[in-house]
Specification:
single chain; two-stranded antiparallel ribbon; 19% strand; LysR_subst-bd; WH-like_DNA-bd_sf; transcription regulation; DNA-binding
C-alpha cells in the first residue's frame, strides 16, 4: 500500500500566501485577525513539513526563497480554486451589498452624483463603495469589483473598459482678483498650474504635447487628489489639468471652463474588473448595465463643452 500522503494545514498555507503578499508577518497577522506569533508558528509548521526554509528573514523585507515561491504558487492556486468552489456552491444572498473599490476623486466627481439613478432602477439592490486616495487601486481584499486606472491601456485580464483618459485644462470663468481665463500658453504663464498629484505628471504631459519650445516659468499649486485640484480651480486659484470625465459635471454646470487647448488622449484607460465573487453576485448584471449606461451618457460628445 502507498504511504499515506500528509497534507499541510490550509491555515498555514493561507498564512504563507498572506505573508508573501504583504512582505510582513505583522500585516499578515492583522489581515487574518491572528497574532504575529501564530502566523510565525504556521509558517514554521510548513517549513518543518517541507523540510526547507520558505522565507528569507535577513533582509529588511520578508521575501520568499526559491522553495518558498514554489509552495506559494501551489498554495495560491489551491486557495483560489477553493474560493471559487465556495462561491459556486454557496452564491451570495440577495441582500449582500455589491462591493466596489474606486478612486476617491472618481467616486466623488462621477459616481456619487449618479448613484440615485442606480437605486431608482434597482430598488432591491445595495452598493457598498470603498474609496482609495493613492495612484493605484489595490485589487486585494474582499470587494466584488474594482475600477482601475491602466496607464498603458487594457491588459490580459477580463476587463470592462469604461473611459479613455483625456487630459484637459480647466479653470473658473473668472479667476481670483478678477483675472480673465488664459487664452494661450503665453497667458497661462501668469496663472498657477494646479496639480492633482505631487508628481505633476499630467501638466507635464499636456504641455509637452503642445510642441511649444518657448521657455516659460510657472507657479505651481500641488494637491494629492484630483477632487481637491478641481475644487481649487473652481475657486479661481489657477488652472487645473484633469481628466475630462472628472470635470464633466462641473463643465456642464458652468463652474469650470476649458480656457483654451485641445484634450490630450494619453492612452490610459479606466476599466472595471470583477472578482469571482462579483461575477456570481446577483447584482452583477445590473451593475454592469448601469455602468455602461452612465459611461455612454458621460462620453457622449455633445455632453462636454470644448
Amino acid at each position: 500500500m502507498d504511504k499515506l500522503f500528509r497534507v499541510p494545514s490550509m491555515q498555514a498555507l493561507q498564512a504563507l500566501v498572506r505573508v508573501a503578499d504583504t512582505s510582513s508577518f505583522t500585516e499578515a497577522a492583522r489581515q487574518l485577525h491572528l497574532t504575529q506569533s501564530a502566523i510565525s508558528r504556521q509558517v514554521q509548521q510548513l517549513e518543518e513539513h517541507y523540510q526547507t526554509v520558505l522565507f528569507d528573514r535577513t533582509s529588511r523585507k520578508v521575501a520568499l526563497t526559491a522553495h518558498g515561491r514554489e509552495v506559494y504558487q501551489v498554495a495560491q492556486e489551491m486557495l483560489k480554486s477553493l474560493r471559487a468552489l465556495e462561491l459556486r456552491l454557496a452564491p451570495p444572498p440577495q441582500d449582500r451589498p455589491f462591493r466596489i473599490r474606486i478612486f476617491v476623486s472618481l467616486a466623488v466627481r462621477w459616481l456619487l452624483p449618479r448613484l440615485s439613478s442606480f437605486y431608482a432602477i434597482n430598488p432591491g439592490l445595495c452598493l457598498s463603495i470603498e474609496t482609495v486616495s493613492g495612484e493605484t487601486v489595490d485589487t486585494g481584499g474582499d470587494c466584488d469589483a474594482y475600477v482601475l486606472y491602466l496607464p498603458g491601456g487594457l491588459d490580459e485580464r477580463p476587463l470592462t473598459p469604461l473611459f479613455d483618459e483625456y487630459l484637459i485644462p480647466v479653470c473658473a470663468p473668472e479667476l481670483s482678483g478678477g483675472l480673465a481665463p488664459p487664452r494661450s500658453l503665453d497667458e497661462l504663464a501668469g496663472h498657477a498650474l494646479i496639480h492633482g498629484s505631487t508628481g505633476r505628471h499630467e501638466w507635464t504631459l499636456w504641455l509637452q504635447a503642445q510642441q511649444d519650445q518657448t521657455e516659460r516659468s510657472y507657479k505651481h499649486l500641488l494637491f494629492n487628489l484630483d477632487d481637491l485640484a478641481l475644487d481649487a480651480a473652481a475657486r479661481g486659484l489657477g488652472v487645473a489639468m484633469t481628466d475630462k470625465v472628472l470635470a464633466h459635471d462641473a463643465l456642464a454646470r458652468g463652474d469650470l471652463i476649458v480656457p483654451f487647448g485641445e484634450a490630450l488622449r494619453t492612452g490610459g484607460v479606466y476599466a472595471l474588473w470583477l472578482r469571482d465573487s462579483g461575477v456570481t453576485h446577483p447584482a452583477c448584471q445590473a451593475v454592469l448595465n448601469w455602468f455602461e449606461e452612465q459611461v455612454e451618457q458621460t462620453t457622449r460628445p455633445a455632453s462636454v463643452p470644448g
